[in-house]
Amino acid sequence: MRQLARAAIAALLAAAAPLAAADPPAAGRRLVEVRRFRAAEARQGVAADAHHVYAIDDRRIGKYAKRSGERVAGWNAPEGGGFVHLNGGVVLDGRLYCAHSNYPGIPMLSSIEIFDTASLAHVASHGFGIFQGSATWLDRRDGAFFVAFANYAGRGGVPGRGPEWTSLVRFDARWRPQGGFGFPPALVSRFGTRSSSGGAFGPDGLLYTTGHDAREVYALRLPRAGGALELVEILPAPAAGQGIAWDPAEPGLLWMIEKSSREVVAARLEGP
Predict the structure, then answer these.
(1) Residues 183 and 207: beta-carbon distance below 8 Å
(2) CATH number of the domain that residue 71 is part of
(3) How do residues 141-193 score in pLDDT, each as one tens digit?
(4) Environment class of residue 69 by beta-carbon count within 10 Å: exposed (0-12), middle (13-18) or buried (19+)?
(5) Would 70 be classed as within a structural domain?
(6) Is the Cβ–Cβ distance between 134 and 151 less than 8 Å?
(7) Is residue 13 part of a domain?
(8) Residue 8 lies in a domain
(9) What is the per-residue pLDDT across 188-213, written as a single tens digit (0 to 9) for each?
């Protein structure tokens, strides 16, 4: 009987092993809110430099003092200027780079729109044309640009291509494709009908991304081999989805937005 019991337990453990291997480790860290303030443009994303945050809407940008929350400048897209749907952004070398697309238009058209952070003047654009999806966010690491191209089930999506077709593409400094990665199924299942709405490389070298609605941030690792990003950790977050940005002056401080209330939210990464 004891041998039969041991055999039964061994069989159960063997059956459970693949499921355990597929699940990310339990979160030992969390994002704790430290402050928030109103920003009318906080609908799609946020970017940060040493002293300001930039709240991003479809066709407008607001520049806010980080400490006081005071709005110090703004930009509005000109009529007929080609701007449809600005999304996540990042500040690099005094310029604000924003992912942009024609969402929910089909076929999907994407570009990177670039603004001077001092004046918020639009200074440059790089068009991808019809590419792998709808550009939702970007960041730079080791001299390369990484751009997320989202796919959706339903509004804004292409029939037969749901969120599982979302990809992260690496470009060199001249925007030439240098490879890319898919998102792991365990993460795609949490996107629902939407996709990866925000992302940024953290101070620990991991890539952090959000979905569209969940109050979660996902820590990912670029794989050493293969074509899929690795899901490392799921972090509870004080805001729901959309674009995010790590603060360049305060390591471990993540900027988010609360789209429903039009607020910019600062959260500190805490835990082991």
Answers:
(1) no
(2) 2.120.10.30
(3) 999 999 999 999 999 999 999 999 999 999 999 999 999 999 999 999 999 99
(4) middle
(5) yes
(6) yes
(7) no
(8) no
(9) 999 999 999 999 999 999 999 999 99
